[in-house]
């Protein structure tokens, strides 16, 4: 993935990226209504509360939807075609957009997946998913 732009952690997202670097998938959980939310943001979209904690997730889920690119849309993707972007519905109900690390011809909606962290810099490990 060398050459692709990397996430730039900010005040809201920094803890998410620190947990990923430690091999943990965590999302914000509202302390008022208990709604899980991703991506990280300051307020709860359900009740508006600014109070939250970081809840560890199982990292397991199912493919909600996917798209397979057969053309490199960025030079860094040249050797990674076909490239599969997926939306995972995690066991806890959170939807997360990511990439599949397995062969594109093996993916299908509803297929079980689990998180696989890919270190891409000293600060960032990307949460990707593999088929189970």
Task: Provide a descriptive summary of the structure in words.
- By secondary structure, this protein is mainly β.
- The chain has one helix at residues 14-21; strands at 26-30, 36-37, 52-56, 60-69, 83-90, 95-99, 112-119, 125-131.
- A hairpin with a 5-residue loop joins strand 1 (26-30) and strand 2.
- The two termini are 23 Å apart.
Brief sketch in words of this structure:
The protein is 6% helix and 38% strand.
- The proportion of strand residues reads 35-45%
Distance between the termini: 23 Å
Helicity, as a percent range: under 10%
Give a short account of the largest sheet. Answer: 5 strands, antiparallel
Low-confidence stretches: none
* Tally of DSSP β-strands: 8
Structural class: mainly beta
N to C succession of SSEs: HEEEEEEEE
Q: Helical stretch count?
A: 1
Chart the SSEs and their pairings.
Blueprint: H1 14-21, E1 26-30, E2 36-37, E3 52-56, E4 60-69, E5 83-90, E6 95-99, E7 112-119, E8 125-131
Antiparallel strand pairs: 1-2, 1-3, 4-5, 4-7, 5-6, 7-8
List the keywords.
mainly beta; 38% strand; globular; five-stranded antiparallel beta sheet; single chain; 8 strands
